[in-house]
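Field reference: sequence -> structure
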Amino acid sequence: MSAPMSISTTSADSVPIESITLADNQKVRIRPVNFSDVERERRFILGLSPQSRRMRFLDTMNEPSEGLLRCLTHIAPDREAALVALEGERDEIIGVARYSAGSDGSAEVAVVVSDAWQRHGIGTALMSRLIDIALQHGVKRFMSVDPNSNYGMQQFAHKLGFHGEGVPDDPTMICYTLPLLAKQSNPQ
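Structure field:
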């Protein structure tokens, strides 16, 4: 993935909207999630395969509830951040990364990329920018609890430098942690 091609504008919370070029020369825009993304988020979730939905939400939901959609698109900037990747000229979400921070300096993180766009560098691009935002807001550590059957997450977590450990209460889950350091804000 190359460096951002341009920074075109800035959102209300001062996170730049970026246009990036992927390794296969496809263009993707990354910007913060906002309240007007409810229907885009709904279409994105419904477009995920049942397996991707289950891995992201730990549930096999058929339709996201209005409450879930509100939670995913109405961000509390003092403790949360969420970014979307949008396909080229279209205004459809193809990836989302978010965190929700606690008072102890740690934040739960989640990333999901639409099935058709996986392994194109979108998750890495989203996480790189999310790490930058988290560092600016004093987050010291990312964590994520995922099914141990989520082999894509295992590879992705390893690539980004997360450390995984089994969850003592649930042998079907892995808890990944990543201490956040300024040098990690641009994972390869």
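Note: The domain at 6-185 is CATH 3.40.630.30 (Aminopeptidase).
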